[in-house]
Design a protein that fits this description.
Number of domains: 2
Keywords: Disulfide bond, Glycosidase, Hydrolase, Signal
Helix content: 25-40%
Radius of gyration: 23 Å
Distance between the termini: 38 Å
GO cellular component, one term: plasma membrane
CATH superfamily of the largest domain: Glycosidases
Largest sheet: 9 strands, parallel
Strand content: 5-15%
InterPro entries: GH (IPR017853), Glyco_hydro_17 (IPR000490), Glyco_hydro_17_plant (IPR044965), X8 (IPR012946)
CATH topology of the largest domain: TIM Barrel
GO molecular function: glucan endo-1,3-beta-D-glucosidase activity
Protein name: glucan endo-1,3-beta-D-glucosidase
Length: 440
């Protein structure tokens, strides 16, 4: 078992403290989202296998020039290898999930050429035991149910995925997959059993096309990708789970994000992946699937809904969010009790988005000005209008946050505002000043 070490936070322990914690947790592998020199030097003193990353913005240059690929390897691999046990180089992160601009789509075409150049540079330096891959999200597959229906998106199947799996097959590398059962379950908690998502074994179904029986959602998702690769003629490319996990907290409108479910998912995940003999999946029984849990820490500066900031096994101060053993040697009976889950069903009712009590007033003022640039959004806050009094930055920002979120939530807006806002079920309206709300 490995662990993802992300650092999108302003309150995280130092790299040296973090490497110590990774060792204390007895993680066999660690995955970085860059090739940070300080961390790579610290890891040289350990027996932890390391995955490093060519970041998305670096891909076009590497794809277009072998000299730039050689420079990347010279700067990010050769000073540390083999003392630091670099085992994987990942080119980009979920590249095919970005599709909003022409530049995003241009990156798709650069992906496999960049991987080839990195591999060529490794060979020229006589490095044979570093695998090159790229992590994909589950959105590269059009369908996961039933697993036998799995097929890649039509916009990338021939142009990107075919050359990708051909490269992975020829270099004996892995298809790296970010796979989160939490997301399909939380979108359809009435249709998907929580026990099925958490490996609790109280539900199963049989794929009518293959006769294979599934006892958990992770296997279903993994096998849908296996069948998608088989449709392209590649049935032997092994899988590696680059990210998986379960959020330990989240916003009010995010069901199931709690410590109880997070601990249950990750403990059962480790039990499955560390089983002897290997469990594999129904389509590939008995196969080892290397797995990286996401993530080491809660990361307080990640944008988006609340779950984005709450995937950690550790709090930012280094304390465990819940007890876990990455080696699967600790008996389950020795774990202490977990807090009872309180939000396993979707919230029904009204929500408002208000300023956090601990938010900096100057930052609130800047966010207020930004939200109020939308025409008419904040007219009601003007002197003499219903929501001008009390004329406090906190109160006005809360109104602006609620109004903006209510208007643009359907377009992806979240109640975050750079960490200045939070959801509430308590109506902040006063008298004739009615705050806009979201109804679930």
């Amino acid at each position: 078992m490995g662990i993802n070490y992300g650092r999108v936070g302003n309150n995280l322990p130092s790299p040296s403290q973090s490497v110590e914690r990774i060792q204390l947790m007895r993680a066999r592998r660690v995955k970085l989202y860059d090739a940070d020199p300080e961390i790579l030097k610290l890891l040289s003193r350990t027996q932890v296998q390391v995955s490093i990353m060519v970041q998305n913005q670096e891909i076009p240059g590497v794809a277009s020039s072998q000299a730039l690929a050689d420079k990347w390897v010279r700067n990010n691999v050769l000073p540390y290898y083999p003392r630091t046990m670099i085992r994987f180089i990942l080119v980009g992160n979920e590249v095919l999930s970005y599709n909003s601009t022409d530049r995003d789509r241009q990156l798709w075409g650069d992906l496999v050429p960049a991987m080839r150049r990195i591999k060529s540079s490794l060979r020229s330096n006589r490095i044979r035991n570093i695998k090159v891959g790229t992590p994909m999200a589950m959105d590269v597959v059009e369908s996961t149910f039933p697993p036998s229906s799995g097929r890649f998106r039509s916009d990338v199947a021939e142009s990107v995925i075919m050359p990708l799996v051909r490269f992975l097959n020829s270099t004996r590398s892995y298809f790296f997959l970010d796979v989160y059962p939490y997301f399909p379950w939380s979108r359809n908690p009435g249709d998907i059993s929580l026990d099925f998502a958490l490996f609790r074994g109280n539900f199963n179904y049989t794929d009518p096309a293959t006769g294979l029986t599934y006892t958990n959602l992770l296997d279903q998702m993994l096998d849908s990708l296996i069948f998608a690769m088989e449709r392209l003629g590649y049935s032997n490319v092994p899988l590696l789970i680059a990210e998986t996990g379960w959020p330990n907290s989240g916003d009010i409108d995010e069901p199931g994000a709690n410590i109880n479910n997070a601990a249950t998912y990750n403990r059962n995940l480790i039990k499955k992946m560390m089983a002897e003999p290997p469990a594999g999946t129904p389509a590939r029984p008995g196969v080892v699937i290397p797995t990286f849990i996401f993530s080491l820490y809660d990361e307080n500066q990640k944008a988006g809904p609340g779950t984005e900031r709450h995937w950690g096994l550790l709090h930012a101060n280094g304390d465990a969010v819940y007890e876990i053993d990455l080696t699967e040697k600790r008996p389950a009976s020795t774990y202490g009790p977990l807090p009872l889950p309180t939000n396993n069903r979707p919230y029904k009712g009204k929500l408002w988005c208000v300023a956090r009590i601990d938010a900096n007033v100057t930052d609130l003022g800047s966010a207020l000005s930004s939200a109020c640039r939308v025409n008419g959004m904040c007219d009601i806050l003007m002197p003499g209008r219903e929501c001008h009094e009390p004329a406090s930055t906190f109160r006005h920002a809360s109104y602006a946050f609620s109004a903006y979120w209510a208007r643009f939530r359907s377009r992806g807006a979240t109640c975050y505002f750079d960490g200045l806002a939070e959801q509430t079920v308590g109506d902040p309206s006063r008298g004739s000043c009615k705050f806009p709300s979201v109804t679930l």
